[in-house]
Each structure stands twice: as C-alpha cells, then as structure tokens.
Design brief:
By secondary structure, the chain is mostly helical. Helices cover 74% and strands 0% of the residues. The chain is flat and about 55 Å long.
Length: 230
Amino acid sequence: MIEQRRINLFVLIFMNLIFGTLILVWNNFKLDMIYFCICSLILIYSGKTKRFIKFLIFYLICLYIVFYIKLPDDSFFSFIGFISYSNVKMCPTYMIASFIVLDIRTSELIYVLGKLGFGKKIRFACTITLKFIPIYFAEKRIIKNALKLRGIDVSFTKPIKRFEYYIVPTLFRASNIANEMTESAYTRCAMCTDNMNSIYYKKFDIVDFILIVMLILLVASWGGGFIDKI
C-alpha cells in the first residue's frame, strides 16, 4: 500500500456529490465561507498549496465583483454578476474536483468506482472522461510551446494559421489520446467484474473521520439554524 498525505477518495466523492448540491440550496454566505475554508484545508493538507493560492485568488476576485462592484443594469453585466456569484458558490466544488481529476491515480479511481457499485461501462466511461481532461490540456501546452520554439504565431488574429498549425494537430492528438487512454483503462481492468484492488488506495484514517465530523456539524448548523445566530 502506497501511503501519502491526502483525504480518502470515498470522502472526496461524497463531499462533491452531497455538498455540491447543498451549496445550491442554502442561501447563507457564512456557510459558503466555512465550506470554502474546509476545502482549502484539504488542498493544503494534501500538499497542493500553489493550487490553493490560485483558487483563493480566483475566489477573491469573484467575491469582489459580487459584493464590491456595482455593475450596470445591463444584460451583459448581469451575466457577469451571475457567473461571478455562481463561481463563489461552486469554487469549493471546483477545488475538490481538481484534486480528484488531477491527483487521483487511474487504478484507484477505478477501484473506488467499483466499490461504489458503478457498472463496468459507467466506471469505464467516468475513468476515461476524468483522466482525459488533464492529459488533453497538457498536450495543448506542448503543442503551443513547440510552435513558439519554431516562431509560428497562432494568435486569434491569424485564424488560418491557428487552424492549420494548432487546432488540427490538437484534434488529431486528442483522438490519439482517447485511443491510448482506452487501451490503458483496459489494462487497468476498468471493465473487470471481479474483486479489484489498488496499491494507491488511501485507507480511511483519523483525518478522514475528523473531516466527516466537521461536515456533519456544518450541515447540522445549517439545518438547525445555528449558523444564523453567529
């Protein structure tokens, strides 16, 4: 078993499933802030401090737009305000999702999805989809850097060049990545129906228990109305 300092994947998945819904239901900024702090602690505890700082900057910018900038009563600016408010609400969910997508190994994800009772087809599709995203963006960066080294300008002001030298190679590479990931998922027994295991699976420990208690108290404070008395 390979141990590392992070939260159990079962806890992370249920956090995003349950609280990703609850934050849309409750209308309390204090709860939003508390949940954001909890998710921030998860990233910091897992050693993702740089990512936490990026999310914090993003969160503060959205907060500033929502609470401190009086936007004109216009459809465009109303849309900007709506997007900013949505990001304030959903930023904690983005944080946990980023950890699941970027830092959880494929074999562990397959194992946990299997334990959650997902069918092999759903398990296979989820694994391919979630792991495709970071690899795809990494390949895009590689293509962009290669074009810069060759001095090829693919900015939006040159759409023909951008399409020929950037978009077409990216699409071809995306197709190849999809095929490679499908083969990789097969080798990791994503379609297997037998009992599976993963050497990367992080077992439930005291930190996970403390996190669950904190989340239960958060829900209880919302349901009991205690948070409004603070």
